[in-house]
Fold this protein.
Amino acid sequence: MSNKITINSLIILSALTLSIAYFIEFVLGHEPCSLCKIERIPYIGAIILGSLLIFINKWKKIILSLIFLLFVFGTIISIYHVGIEQNIFSESFLCEIGLNNNIKNPDELLKTLGKTPISCKDVTFKVFGLSLATFNTILSIVISCILLKQILKK
């Protein structure tokens, strides 16, 4: 695959993945856990850095390497998330992040304290019996392998 096709495909795939995640969150009403939100970072980064690469057309290897590192990070977080869902790992402080830190008055504090964060081990949405974290793990590994191949080819 040529570099341009890879980058364009990555941008489109990342935009599609984020669109599906936001559709599930805002339209279907499935609240994501903290790890689900963190797992979106590589896709956002891929859109920004991939677009930058299209317009600048410099530092291809460096930018592709940064995107690769983002997806390696995403793979690790996704594997950890699937491990939590399967009771292989226990939840960490990352799963408790999510309470609103933008508190301006006592009423907001009470609302925030009354709201419990979504547990990372609770799977609220499945496709073909697999959690979205499982799909994200597979997708992140595939994207990482494709990017590594493109980087090594240069």
Residues 82 and 134 are 6 Å apart (CA to CA). The mean pLDDT is 87. Strands lie at 126-127, 130-131. Residues 3-153 form a domain with the Bromodomain-like fold (CATH 1.20.1550).
